[in-house]
Amino acid sequence: MSDLFPDLPPVPVNKVMMLKELRREIGMREHVYPRQVAARKMTEGSAQERIRILKAVVAFIEENHP
Fold first, then answer.
1. In Å, what is the CA distance from 66 to each residue of 21, 28, 60, 61?
2. What is the mean pLDDT of the chain?
3. What are the Cα distances from residue 10, in Å, to 3, 16, 17, 41?
4. Which position has the higher pLDDT, 61 or 5?
5. Are 26 and 58 contacting, i.e. CB atoms less than 8 angstroms apart?
6. CA nearest 26: which of 51, 2, 6?
7. How far is residue 66's CA from residue 61's CA, in Å, rounded to a whole number?
8. Residue range 38-66: average pLDDT?
9. Closest CA to 55 of 31, 29, 16
10. pLDDT at residue 2 tops 70
11. 8 Å CB contact between 58 and 27
12. Confidence of residue 4 (pLDDT cuts 50, 70, 90)
């Protein structure tokens, strides 16, 4: 995978930043997936599973990484 901004120094990422980004992604999926299901581009089960997995990642980080 290539770096989109190779001239910029890497930015440290902390737990709060990770959780914020995961929650943003969950919100996007909850908004977009119903349209994908309606357009028959994915199944309801697949949509629910993908969101459930990200929510599990959030819970795991919150519980195991104080």
1. 17, 26, 11, 8
2. 92
3. 10, 17, 14, 36
4. 61
5. yes
6. 51
7. 8
8. 95
9. 29
10. no
11. no
12. confident
DSSP conformational letter for 12? P
- Encoding tokens for residue 6? 């190779």
- Over residues 19-29, the pLDDT tens digits come to 999 999 999 99
Residue type, 5: F
| Residue-level length of the chain | 66
Work out whether the CA dihedral 37, 55, 22, 2 comes out positive or negative. negative
Q: How far apart are CA 49 and CA 65, in angstroms?
A: 24
d(CA 62, CA 6): 31
User: Two tokens at 20?
Assistant: 């914020």
